[in-house]
Amino acid sequence: MTDETLPGADQVAAYLRRHPEFFQDRPDLLELMRLPDPRGPAVSLLERQASILRDRNQELRERLNGLIDVARENDLLFEHTRRLTLALLEARSTDKLLRQLLRGLEDEFRCDTVSLLLHDREAKLLGEVRKQVRFMDPDDLPSALGPLLRTGKAVCGILRQAELEALFQDQAEKVKSAAVVPLEHNGRLGVLAIGSADAMHFRSSLGTLFITHIGQVLSRRLVEVSGPAAARHAQRA
């Protein structure tokens, strides 16, 4: 058999794919085959297969551990969300509702700063709560917030400086990542912004399921505790 009649490498590979049992009755060939290994001396085919299987097993373990970590994080987020939701449901006035919100976000979610932009100018707020709430007509929202609020959905990530300043004002410099939640229930009610000094706390890959749920509960409770005034503002918006 001349070099011209010998099968090419692609033909050999195709044949072995069609006949994976080829080496089953030819163990002597397996012992003769040596494969270069970037991690050391050449090894047999069986040793290389065992090494590949070990690597794949390690990769699968790492993926499984990653899924377990995500599941644990979601369990923790669910518990925090559950406690905050119950606290919001118990409030009987706008002032108490927002106090529960601010306390829960700081204690349960380790947030460094919270800002609320509400459209209901008739809401009665006291003390520290009043410092973290701004009343603003929907048409007067800073233009920098337009891209964030255009979809009407919660957004997490690192915001632009103009967006941070519009949301957090004098606290903007210490916010490295944030979650922004439009508040809507039969119309626009305002915006909830939650900031963290940790750039990875509200990373863009973070799911918004839990923070969206908080925004939905808060929106409905705002309408309930504020009465007709909040409803009128929502309808106009």
Automatic annotation (TrEMBL):
Q: Which organism is it from?
A: Alloalcanivorax profundimaris
* Any one Pfam family match given in the protein's UniProt record, by short name: DUF484
InterPro entries per record? DUF484, GAF-like_dom_sf
Sorted keywords for this record are: Coiled coil
Which SUPFAM superfamilies does the record associate with it?
GAF domain-like
Question: Which residues fall in a coiled-coil region?
Answer: 43-70
Report the protein name in the record: DUF484 family protein
Question: Which superkingdom does the taxonomy of this entry point to?
Answer: Bacteria
